[in-house]
Design a protein that fits this description.
Strand content: 15-25%
Number of helices: 5
Structural class: alpha/beta
Shape: globular
Length: about 150
Amino acid sequence: MESPSRRALVAELDRFDRLLEVGSGDRLGVAEALADRGRDVIAIDVAVDDGDDGGTGGSAGSLRARHGDVIALADAHDPSDAIGADGGIDAVYARRLPAELQRPTVELARRLDAACLFTTLGFEEPVVPVERRSLPDSTLYVARTSTPPSP
């Protein structure tokens, strides 16, 4: 059963067409739900092998899981090329993002000209400037906004 906080997070992210999840690990539930809604999602984590697609694709969306280190990607010459985002990224998001990865995640979003949204581990406060949005059982932090393309 999907939690109310996960449903709310998916609803918040659903307005973006092309998303990058940072630190996905093997928890691809949000990315899968977005792909099922027709969104194109790339999920990166240092513990994922390149080419592992997560086994999911929505009717019009896709999910690709890739090896990626957000710190290295934030400094990459062309981060979009490094993650295989040929069409660009509209939003970078993370769930349970630890404080030490918040700055590089925001920097990566800036370099991709994308929005940046995340939740924390719960006991940590954000270490970057954010706008707070209440979700059921959690808080969504918006560190960078962008306007999604018009339909």
